[in-house]
Write the C-alpha cells for this entry.
Amino acid sequence: MKIVHIADEVIETVWTLLEKGSCTREMVKSAHAGSAGYVVDDEVLGGLEKSGLIHFAGSDISLTEEGRAQAMPIIRRHRLAERLLVDVLGMTFEEMEESACEYEHTLAPGLTEAICTLLGHPRECPHGSPIPEGDCCRRAESSVKTFVKSLDALSIGDEIRITFIRKSDPVLVGKLVSFGVSPGKRLKIRQKFPAYIIQIDNTQIALEQDIAAGIFGLKL
Amino acid sequence: MAPEKRHWKRILLIGLPNTGKSTLFRRLVHRGGRVSAFPDSTAEVQRGNLRLEGQEVEIVDMPGIYGLSTNADSEKVARSLLVEEAPDLVIQVADAKNLKRSLVLTALLAEFRLPMILVANMADEAAQKGIRIRRQRLEAALGIPVIETVAAEGIGTAALLSALPQRKAPSLRSRLPDKIGKSVEDLAGLMASPAMPAGARRGLALLALTGDEETSRWTLQKAEIQDYSAARQIIEETGRPFYRPLSLVCSLAHEGWAESLARDSAEQSPVSSTPWLNRLGDMALTPVAGSLTLFLVLALLYFAIGRLAAGLLVDLLVNRFFGEGVSPLLERLAEGIPWAFLQEIALGPYGLYPMAIVPVLGLVLPVVTFFYFSFGMIEDSGYISRLSVLLDRLFRRVGLNGKAVLPIMLGFSCVTTATMSTRVLDSRRERFIAIFLLSLGVPCSAKLSLILVILARVGFAAFLTVFGVVFLLTVLAGVMLNRWMPAEPSHFLMEIPAIRIPSLKNVLQRTFYRSWIFLRESLPLFLISALGLFSLAKIGFLSWAEELAAPVIRGGLGLPPQFAESLLMGFIRGEAGIAVLSRMVDSGVMDHRQLVVAMIVTILFAPCVTNFMLIVKELGTRKALAILALVTAAALSTGVVMNFLLHWGRFEF
C-alpha cells in the first residue's frame, strides 16, 4: 500500500468526521481499525501533520487548507460514484460501498465532470451527505448528456425512477415521502399544466411546478 | 386469560388524510358529520360515544396525519391525544388501495405499544383496482386484528365492532435503525413518571428524537424528564451521524419495511376498472376539458338551484302553499285572538310568521336542501380535488393555492364551516387571506338561496351585475392582500382520489342531516332576530337608528332608510338580512336598481355573528376586528360607487 493512498484515506475520514461534528485521533484510528493492509497510528497521523495536511489541537484533528483542497475531489468522486452505482446501475448499498472506494482514486477529472453532468449535478450522496460542488455544477451544465433530469425537464408520459429529491424544507420532503415520492420509486408523469400530475403505484398526486423541479429521476 | 371485565374509556381513530376515518366514525357512533372526498377534510376533533361490553366508550376522530413529528396543527392534536388521553385502543384506518402508505404510519404507531386494530377501508375500490388484501398475512406480521371495511356502505363495521374487545398491542418488532432504537431506550429510561406506561414513554422518546424543535421541546416537557441536559445530549448525539433529519431517516426505514409487507400482503391483479370513468377523471384535470367540465357543472348547479329550487319550488311553496293555503287560515285563526298585540307579534309586518316562518320554511330550506344535495354529489364524486388542480394557478394570484379551493367552495355552503376548514391551509398568511375573502365575497347557501329567489324575479342582468361586482371586488381584495402581506412559501401538493359515481344513499343521508342541522340553527336565530327587530321597532329605536344612518344609506347608497334593518338582521343571521330586502321589494319601497345596490352591499357586508365569533377564536380579536372593519368599509364604499355608476349610466334592470 502506497503512503499517498493511505494519506488520501485518512484525510477522507477526517473530512467525513468533521462534517458530522467532531474528529479526534481516536475516532480516526478506530475508523481505520478494520482496514486491510495498513494501520493508522500516531506515526501516520504525525506524518500527515508534517506534510501540512492536518492540524492537531489537543486530541482534535482538523484539516489544513491544503488538506481540504486535497480531500475535496476525493470526497466528490466517492459520492458521485455512489450515486452512479445506485441510481444508474441499481446496486445495493453494500455492493456500492466497495466499488465506490475504488472509483474515488481512479476517476479522471474529465470523467468526474461527465458523470456529475450525467447525473444532473446531484447535491447529496445516497446516504444524504453533501457532494462538494465541481466546476460543472457551478456552470450548471445541462445537455443531452444529462440522464438524470428533474420532472420539469421531462415530458408527459415519461416514466422515471426517482433518484433524489432536491428540496431543503424537511417538512415538505417528509410529506413527499409519505405520498410515496421517494428515491427508488417509479413515477409516471401524467400532466404538466396547470399543475403536475404524477402517478406512483395506484395513487395520483398533484403538485406545483416548483416542487416538480426538485424531483430528479432516471428515465426508464 | 380470565374473562375479567375490563374498563373502557376511550378509542382513538387515526390515519392518513382521506382514508375515510370520519365516515367510519359516523358508522360507529351513528351520528352524522361532514365528510368530503377531499384530502385533509376533517379539520378538527370529533367525539362521540359507542356501547362496548356494557360500557359507554368515547370514540375520538382526529384530523388526518402523515406522521407525528412536525408542528402541523393536525399532528400536534394527534400527539396530545395519543399521549395525554391514554386511549384503550387505537383504530388505524388505512386506504386499502394503498396499504403501503398507511403501514408506514402503523410502524410509527406501533412504537407506542398501544392496543391497535388496522382497518383496511375502501375495500370495494381496492377490489375494483384489482387489489386483494391477504388479511391473515397482515395479521401475522403485525400481531393485531385487520378488518376490511367499506365504511361508506357500512360493510365490515360489525366485524370491526366485534374485534374491538381483543385489545392486542402490535407484536411487530421495532423497525428503527439500531442506533436510533438504542437512543429511544436510553431516552425513555430518563423519563421518570412511573404513572406513564412504558409504551407511552417509548413513543415520547421517539418523538423527542425525531420531532422538529418545538415538538421535541413539547415532548420532553410532557415526559417530565428529570435530567434535561442528558436528554438533550442523547438527542444531539443521535442526530449527529445522520445528514438527514431523524424523522426522515425513521420514515425511510419504516417505508422499506412497509413496502415489502405491502407487496407480500396485497395482491395486485390486472386492473378491471371502469375506463370511461377514469378518462373522465383525467379530463377534468386538463385546462381545456377541465374548464368545459367546470362550466357544465356550474350550469347544472344554476339550473338545479337557481331555476328549479329558487324559482319553481319556492314559488310553489310561498305562493301556493303559504300564500293561498296557510296564510288565509292563520289570518282567520288570528281574528279569534282578542289581543291586537299578539296578532301583531305573530302576523304583523314585523311578526314572526312573515319575518321568520315563511322565509325559513318556504324560501331558504328548500333551496338549501337542493344545494346540499348538489354539493354532496360533487363532493362524493372526487371532483373538488380536480378543481383544485385546475384553479391552483389562479388561486396563487390571490395569495392562496389549489388547496384553498375546498374552504372557498365550502363557503357557499356555510361560511362558518368554511372558516373552520381553513385549518387545512399550511400558513397563517393563507388562513388570514382565505378567511377574509370568505367574509367578504362568499355568500353562504342560505343567503344565496334568497338572493337567487329575489334575482330570479328581477332578471339575468341583475344577477350578472350583482355577482360580477362581488366577484371582481373579492379578487381585487385577494390580489391586494397578496401584495401587502409578507410572502411565505406555500406548497401545493395533494392526492387526487379516483373519480367515482356518487353514492346516492350517502348523499341523501348527508343532505338530510345537514338540512336538519340548518333548520335547527337557523329557525331559532331567525325567530330571535325577528323578535328583536319587532321590539326595536316598538320602542322606537329602529326609526331612530334609521334616521341616524340615513345620510349614508339614503345619501350615499341611495336606498330607503329601512335598509338599516337589513344590515342589522344580517349581522345576526345572514339570510334574515336578505329576507328584509325581499320584503322591501315586495312592498314597493325599493326599485330594481336600488335592489341591485342593496344586494351587493348585503353580500359584502359583515360576517354573521357566529362566523365573527369563530374568526375571533381562530385569528384573535385584533385580526377579527380588522377584518370586520375592512369588510364593512369595502361593502359601503362599493355600494356608494355602484349607486353612483348605476344612476350616472341611467341603468335599468
